[in-house]
Specification:
Blueprint: E1 2-3, H1 6-13, E2 22-23, E3 28-33, E4 39-43, H2 46-50, E5 88-90, E6 103-110, E7 113-120, H3 128-144, H4 148-163, E8 167-173, E9 179-186, E10 198-199, H5 206-214, E11 217-220, E12 228-231, H6 253-261, E13 266-274, E14 277-286, H7 294-340, H8 348-362, E15 366-371, E16 374-379, E17 382-385, H9 388-395, E18 405-408, H10 411-414, E19 426-431, E20 438-444, E21 449-454, E22 459-465, E23 468-473, E24 479-484, H11 493-521
Antiparallel strand pairs: 1-22, 2-12, 3-4, 3-7, 4-12, 5-6, 6-7, 8-9, 8-14, 9-10, 11-13, 13-14, 15-16, 15-20, 16-17, 18-19, 19-20, 21-24, 22-23
The structure holds biliverdine IX alpha.
Biliverdine IX alpha binds next to strand 8, strand 11, helix 6, strand 13 and strand 14.
Length: 522
């Protein structure tokens, strides 16, 4: 095991998983010419399935035969209207060779072709109405409270109960595409294992994330089952079948290895999106092979889409409203802090009173203002005048004469300590461009960060087999703690907004104050 290189990460992301050319053997697939409805490609297992229980003779040649010789649909016209964005369930009639009592059909348009995928319809022990009513309850819960952790936990709990997978997790992406398991529910034979752990971005490479933003669900029924190739390998136009929306697509062998290393036999995942972007995933694991029937797949797909709706329409706006309300309150409070000081002279007492008020509402450990010859800082509860070296070092943080904004989360590593302010490791600072006489900054102390990873991140196994180098996912997912020092918590958009509010309120105040003083002097 060693660290993954950027070349290797690129190699992971270059595997063409959407044209893998095979499907999982628990179902079968037929691909039709969209105009003639003749079969142009099929999965290799189809004859076994279609001729099960009878002698193979008397069956027409598959390739070139019309679909109705094999399957009768309740509404064959609907084939012409299939979408290339979403696969839909088609109703199969009992009269054909493929019986609706045995199979359900998902259909979609794959570029110019019609893809029909058949999954088992028997053996369903679930009532689909149960899931929908659970989701209904969740929406009610969310409207009542915006506690997202509780919401995610309820969701995975209900999905675990409904699907009976051994482990159901809510996986949430972070800005760098690493991710965290934010909720986890397990069956009686499993323990909570991954909740709170972080996983690196490479575990779900870029092309997989892009694909998952398009396709709402994927399942891996049995990691040991041998994939069935699509035959012939290429369509009449010489291209491989685009399997982006396929529900039977066989999965990347690298990912198969990953699941094996996790001691998982079957997985299922739902894409959770915020608008068009992938926000997270519901990830289910099972210790034995598991083939969800086609109606369970449909229900899960709907629940994933509904949950995406919930995230986009309730959760995100609720967060935004909270943030904006805070900023609006902060703005009027900060403006008032300056205005209340209006009658006073520009003095140390004025700075102290203003800085204290700003700290009350913003909670920053360091808040500093440099205005002409007056430079003060509030550090925790101490109010201090800034020395010349400190001021110079602060001003030098702007790398060009034009720069008006600077921020760092690891000032000591990036620029060195500011003399007199050794405890400040995070800083965000803004200045007036002309005249160059007004600066405001906010600062933070170090936070000792400890990230708990599910296995040492960015490590892979390199395996040499038949003289070929293979990349394999890491084999241990045991807790691996990464300690980070010398950094503050990250600066967010809200910090920048607050800094601008302080800056603008201060600028207004000092410019009117000075014009007043000039008037007084006349
Ligand atoms: C796919 N990786 C995935 C998927 C998940 C994860 C959920 C989606 C497929 C599925 O539903 O199973 C990752 N699974 C996780 C994580 C947890 C989990 C983080 O349970 C945490 C609890 N993977 C690697 C490396 C590579 C890699 C090094 O670790 C590449 C070299 C690749 N992962 C990889 C690929 C896919 C994948 C290619 C796509 C599989 C497919 O859709 O065909």
């Amino acid at each position: 095991t060693r660290k993954i290189t950027s070349d290797e990460a690129a190699q992971c992301a270059s595997e063409a998983i959407q044209i893998i050319g095979s499907i999982q053997p628990h179902g079968f697939q037929l691909v039709l010419d969209a105009d003639t409805l003749q079969i142009v490609q099929h999965s290799s297992n189809i004859l076994d399935i279609l001729t099960a229980g009878s002698s193979a003779s008397g069956y027409p040649e598959l390739i070139g035969s019309h679909i109705s010789q094999w399957v009768e649909f309740a509404n064959i016209e609907s084939l012409a209207a299939l979408s290339s964005k979403k696969s839909v369930v088609l109703e199969i009639k009992e009269s054909g060779r493929v019986k609706s009592s045995d199979w359900g059909c998902f259909a979609h348009r794959a570029d110019g072709w019609i893809s029909l995928e058949f999954s088992p319809s028997t053996g369903s022990e679930y009532d689909s109405r149960v899931l929908l009513s659970q989701i209904d309850n969740m929406v009610a819960l969310l409207k009542a409270s915006h506690d997202e952790t509780a919401l995610f936990q309820t969701l995975v709990g209900q999905l675990q109960e409904y699907t009976q997978y051994d482990r159901v997790m809510m996986y949430r992406f972070l800005p760098d595409w690493s991710g965290e398991v934010v909720a986890e529910a397990v069956s009686e034979r499993e323990d909570i294992k991954y909740k709170g752990l972080r996983f690196p971005a490479e575990d779900i490479p870029k092309q997989a994330r892009e694909l998952y933003a398009l396709s709402p669900i994927r399942l891996f029924a049995d990691i040991d089952a041998k994939p069935c190739p699509l035959e012939p390998a290429l369509l009449p136009n010489g291209q491989p079948l685009n399997q982006s929306l396929s529900i039977l697509r066989s999965m990347s062998p690298v990912h198969r290895h990953y699941l094996k290393n996790m001691q998982v036999s079957a997985s299922l995942s739902l894409s959770i999106k915020k608008g068009d972007t992938l926000w997270g995933m519901v990830v289910c694991h099972h210790n034995d092979p598991k083939v969800p029937t086609n109606d369970v797949v449909s229900q899960l797909r709907i629940s994933g889409e509904l949950f995406s709706e919930i995230i986009t329409s309730y959760l995100i706006p609720a967060e935004k409203i909270k943030r904006l309300t805070y900023l609006m309150n902060a703005q009027s409070y900060i403006e008032a802090s300056f205005n209340q000081a209006k009658m006073a002279n520009i003095s140390a007492a004025l700075f102290e009173s203003v800085l204290l008020k700003i700290q009350t509402i913003t909670q920053y450990h360091f808040i500093g203002i440099i205005y002409r010859e007056q430079s003060y800082i509030l550090e925790g509860s101490s109010f201090l005048r800034l020395g010349d070296h400190t001021i110079e070092a602060l001003k030098n943080l702007f790398s060009t004469p034009d720069a008006i904004y600077f921020q760092s989360e690891k000032l000591h590593q990036e620029k060195g300590e500011i003399p007199g302010l050794n405890g400040m490791v995070g800083i965000a600072m803004i200045r007036a461009k002309v005249p160059n006489d007004f600066y405001v900054f906010i600062g933070k102390e170090e936070v000792a960060k400890s990230i708990q990873w599910g296995g040492a991140p960015q490590t892979v196994n390199i395996v040499i087999e038949n003289n070929e180098r293979h990349l394999e996912p890491r084999s241990s997912f045991a807790l691996w703690r990464q300690n980070i020092s010398g950094e503050s918590s990250p600066w967010q958009e809200q910090d920048r907004n607050l800094l601008e509010i302080i800056f603008n309120a201060g600028k207004d105040f000092f410019s009117t104050k000075h014009s007043q003083m000039r008037i007084n002097q006349l």
